[in-house]
Amino acid sequence: MQFARKPASGLSVMIVGAGFAGLTAAIECDRKGHSVILFESFPELKILGDIISFGPNSGRIFRRWEGVEQQLDPICHRSDGVNFVTYKGEWLFKQYWEDEEDRFGKRFNGHRGEIHEIVFNHALARGIDIRLGHKVVDYFETDDKAGVVVQTPDGEQRFTADAVFAAEGVRSPARKIVLGYEDKPKSSGYAVYRSWFKSENLKSPLTDHLWKNGDRHYAWIGPDVHFLAASLKNGKDFSWVCTHKDEADIEDSWSTPGYIEDCLKVVEGWDPVVQEIVKATPTDYLVDWKLIYRDPLPTWVSPKGRIALIGDAAHPFLPTSIQGASQAMEDGVTLAVCLEKCQGRSKDKSKVPEALRAYQRIRYDRVLRAQKTGETTRDKWHKADFEKVKQNPQLVRLDRPEWLLNFDAEEHAYKVYDDVVREMNKESQAKL
Ligand SMILES: Cc1cc2nc3c(=O)[nH]c(=O)nc-3n(C[C@H](O)[C@H](O)[C@H](O)COP(=O)(O)OP(=O)(O)OC[C@H]3O[C@@H](n4cnc5c(N)ncnc54)[C@H](O)[C@@H]3O)c2cc1C
Question: Ligand 1: which residues within 6 Å by Cβ?
Answer without folding.
Answer: 16-22, 39-42, 48-52, 112, 135-136, 167-169, 173, 254, 311-313, 319, 324-325, 328
